[in-house]
Amino acid sequence: MELIIDGLNDRTKWEKTGVSLPSYDIRAVSERTKKEPLWVHFGAGNIFRMFIAGLQDTLLNQGDADRGIICAETFGYDIIDEIYTPHDNLVLGVTLNADGTTEKKVIGSLCEAIKSISGETAEWRRLKEIFASHSLQMVSFTITEKGYALYSSDGTFLPSIAKDIEGGLREPKTAMAQVTALLHHRFESSKTPIAVVSMDNCSRNGEKLRAAVLTIAAEWQKRGFVSNDFVSWVSDEKTVSFPWTMIDKITPRPNAKIGEMLEKSGIEAMKPTVTKNGTYIAPFVNAEKPQYLVIEDSFPNGRPSLEKAGVYLTDRESVNRVERMKVTTCLNPLHTALAVYGCLLGFDTIADEMKDDTLRTLVEKISAEGLPVVTDPKIISPEKFAEEVLRVRLPNPFMPDTPQRIATDTSQKVGIRFGETIKSYIERDGNAKALTAIPLAIAGWLRYLLAIKDDGEAFEPSSDPLLSELQAKLSGIEWGKKESCGDKLKAILSSESIFSVDLYKAGIGEKIEELFLEEIAGVGAVRATLKKHLSLH
Questions:
Q1: pLDDT given for residue 29 in this prediction
Q2: What is the CB neighbour count within 10 angstroms for residue 480?
Q3: Are the CB atoms for 141 and 43 separated by under 8 Å?
Q4: C-alpha distances in angstroms, 277 versus 76, 113, 174, 281, 411?
Q5: Which of 118, 169, 417, 448 is the most exposed place for a label (fewest CB within 10 A)?
Q6: Does residue 204 contact residue 317 with C-beta atoms inside 8 Å?
Q7: What is the DSSP secondary structure assignment for residue 310, as one 8-state letter?
Q8: Cα–Cα distance, 168 to 331 (Å, whole number)
Q9: What are the φ/ψ torsions at residue 241 (nearest 5 degrees)?
Q10: Strands 138-141 and 273-274, bridge-based pairing
Q11: 351 with 390: CB under 8 angstroms?
């Protein structure tokens, strides 16, 4: 069995292996989508392929949609060449249940995959054609939090952004500049309204996306690249909306054992590979079953019937509350704490970490510290959500998720995942001195930046846009020598651009320094520090 459209002709063979196939005509849907595009998505990675494409696949199977999604990739072009094209844009979705069973289905809703290469290229001309289409209702993103970043920690534009600002419309390279240029083309072509939707896992994602687009548009207007009328058009949410969203589905790297299982069942060429950009890809995507997507219902040119696929459509405040619940309390802070401590303590999976009494207690206490200051979003219960995370999702032994994957880009996450709860404590109590588990998580991240495990062995930290800058600030700190630390932590712990609050003003900067010093004392100091401050003996 080959994962291509013609390879699905013998439906009986696929169904005997437990794989569900699309009930719709994939080629007909693809042709309709190309002629009258409805939805284009930037960020062709695994969560998009499994979750977001899966939503549209559900609508197509139910007869609630007649078109699919066009996806564009701004960074990892290899995924288009190595995964999308050879498999006719099909995805084999594998759901990993906590009882060890799997659910498998072919997702056929991805109708076109484009490398977003700007300039005088066929790909860029095609994207401009898509953006000019009156039928296009939404453009969405899963490009990770760093994809929306415009500024360095010193407040200046990142070099790549500065180059795009000076270069104008002709050949933008960054995702934010590209979408601004494509929106300008839509403005010039038709002025048809559109929704621009971040589906990335970050606080106030619609606000971040809108700010990035409007900043680039304003900078281009100053330089004469675009008109005042365009800036007014893209600033008016009646013509260009930026709905806020909350997304949640743990989608780890494709696991080689899953690939082997699929090949043993007769499905060809399922082995995962790693692209030259370090992206783990495969023709299949493995993920957990629980999934949540909450979207502000603000679509000035209409939208797919996403509520019929299980999406919550609601108002902005409800989205914000659900997102705050998840990102600042019930899941993401726990993931980040497990990520940095998992790397330090030599764990390979999140599920194994949850078998460790010390680490399980740490994340239970982080959750407990956040719940009192989370506003109940009403549509989802914070207590039930947290319980599912702690008792079902994180301990799932069949989820091959790694602390190393989750530790990626931590500098872009700590301000949201911990800073928001810290600010809520300041608002409630005047300071955050009552916190213990969250300071431990932050101290653990600083300890992680030294790239030395608790047993003294070196390790390779995951990629992070600020990694070299942060490690330079800690330069000179020697493992096993507390006196070498000096005041080197102060520049990081006082950085509002990292934590969204000065942690010394919050009353916990000194506490984190003390915890860090304990954790660099020598072999076993990380675990000893955790046990001491979590009152474990």
A1: 98
A2: 12
A3: yes
A4: 7, 18, 16, 11, 20
A5: 169
A6: no
A7: T
A8: 39
A9: -95, 155
A10: unpaired
A11: no
Specify the amino acid at residue 195: A
Contact in structure between 172 and 164 (CB atoms under 8 Å): yes
The 8-class DSSP code of residue 452 comes to B
* CA distances (Å), origin 204, targets 73, 153, 179, 242, 293: 23, 20, 19, 10, 14
pLDDT lower than 70: segments of the chain = 537
Do residues 403 and 462 lie in contact, with contact meaning Cβ atoms separated by under 8 Å?
no
Residues 6+ apart with CB under 8 A from 420: 203, 324, 327, 328, 500
Determine contact, residues 408/462, Cβ cutoff 8 Å: yes
CA angle, 154 then 152 then 143, to 5°: 155
CA distance 398 to 100: 6
Bridge pairing between strands 245-248 and 273-274:
unpaired
Give me the amino acid identity at 406.
I
As a whole number of angstroms, the distance between CA 528 and CA 313 comes to 46
CA distance 343 to 349: 10
**Could you tell me which of 277, 272, 257 has the C-alpha nearest to residue 83?**
272
Residue at token pair 């070498």: 484
The dihedrals phi and psi of 463, each to the nearest 5 degrees, come to -65, 145
Q: Which residue has the tokens 């008016």?
A: 236
| Ramachandran bin of 278, using left for φ above 0, alpha for ψ from -120 to 50, beta for the remaining angles | left
Q: Spell out the residues 6+ positions from residue 277 whose beta carbon is closer than 8 angstroms to its own.
A: 75, 76, 78
Question: What residue has token string 């809520």?
Answer: 424
Greatest CA span in the chain, whole angstroms? Answer: 69
Report strand pairing: 245-248 vs 110-115: unpaired
How many residues would you count in the chain? 537
105 DSSP 8-state letter = E
Q: For residue 338, which phi and psi values (nearest 5 degrees)? A: -65, -35
Cα distance between residue 109 and residue 54, in whole Å: 7
Provide φ and ψ at 198, rounded to 5°. Answer: -80, 125
CA distances to 170, 211, 271, 318 from 324, in Å: 38, 19, 37, 10
Do 38 and 136 touch, CB atoms closer than 8 A? Answer: yes
Amino acid at 328: T
- For the four alpha carbons of 405, 355, 255 and 330, in that order, the dihedral sign comes to negative
The residue among 267, 248, 247, 246 whose CA lies nearest residue 102 is: 267
Instruction: Please give the span between the terminal C-alpha atoms of the chain, in angstroms, as a whole number.
Output: 55
